[in-house]
Amino acid sequence: MIKADSLSKSYGNVRALHKVSFNIAKGEISGILGPNGAGKTTLFKILTGLITPDSGSFSITSDKQKKIGAIIENPALYEYLSAHKNLQVLAKMQGLKLSKDQVNEQLTLVGLPTNRHDPVRNFSLGMKQRLGIATALLNNPDALILDEPFLGLDPLGMQKLRELIIRLAKERNLSVLVSSHQLEELSKVCQNLYLMQNGEITSSGSTQEILSKAAFQYRILGINLSQSETLKTLKATITSNTAWVTVARNDVSALIQQLVNEGVEILEVQPETNLNELYAQV
Ligand SMILES: Nc1ncnc2c1ncn2[C@@H]1O[C@H](COP(=O)(O)OP(=O)(O)OP(=O)(O)O)[C@@H](O)[C@H]1O
Fold first, then answer.
1. Probe ligand 1: pick from 7, 14, 178, 185, max atoms within 8 Å of CB?
2. ABC transporter domain: which residues (predicted)?
3. Pocket test for ligand 1, best of 10, 40, 180 (most atoms within 8 A of CB)
4. CATH T-level topology, domain 215-281
5. d(CA 65, CA 54)
6. Taking the CB of residue 25, how many other CB atoms lie within 10 A of it?
7. Domain ranges in the chain?
8. Could you tell me the CATH superfamily of domain 2-211?
9. Running DSSP on this structure, what letter comes out for residue 103?
10. Mean pLDDT by groups of 10 residues along the chain of 282 residues
């Protein structure tokens, strides 16, 4: 559905992308994970035709007039207009005339209220992301690109956005490509992951594969942590009610079970992923 073949791009002597290839199937959500400057935005700009690659090619299989919808960097909205007006104006630019009902349908599709008529500058970041997605989906493209959509959202906002992306991919059989520097967010929403560093894809595979290969540091909040022999054996760092321990993702549930057996009362287990460690491991 979206196929990239050895895409490369430099800005002067800055190499932003180097021989990037991938294949994303229809209805699949894929993630590009990479730190700042990895080349994610450059890749998305190429896929949406905003810039041309120096070499390599890509294709998007679709019989739609608009093959791909995208939010690059930030949703492009008119802050002083309402959500309704934004959709009407942006639809017009794409050669569409939307009726009131169609505007309401588009707002409902992304979970936005239909009764807000104030300027979108009053909207939360999460609401602006939703409106951006509603705009990107005008003209029913087969693919959707979202550049760092989780940036700046609070945990609930992230969860709601994840649910929206998963629902849209399923209902519309959309191929979705999402970028982020947060593994936790991407792994909850993507079936496949591409790890990108210095313009290159250094590793790729199903989210399950990538996660099972890597060992992560976990922060465990609990009571009686210092009495655990297991944590001592794993060389965990333990303070009064917190322990930091590095284990493989697949071993976490066994670890929790062991801690419970040792009389530890667990309050919270949180992965603290360091991207550099992940890159070194997979
Ligand atoms: N217009 C430009 N002119 C010169 N260098 C650029 C330009 N755009 C991007 N770069 C450089 O290309 C590299 C890749 O940038 P890009 O924005 O694609 O990365 P990114 O992964 O999206 O990072 P971020 O998350 O910080 O946006 C960086 O070194 C960046 O400084």
1. 14
2. 2-223
3. 40
4. Alpha-Beta Plaits (3.30.70)
5. 26
6. 12
7. 2-211, 215-281
8. P-loop containing nucleotide triphosphate hydrolases (3.40.50.300)
9. H
10. 95 96 94 93 95 96 88 90 95 90 94 94 93 93 94 88 94 94 89 95 92 83 93 92 88 92 93 75 72
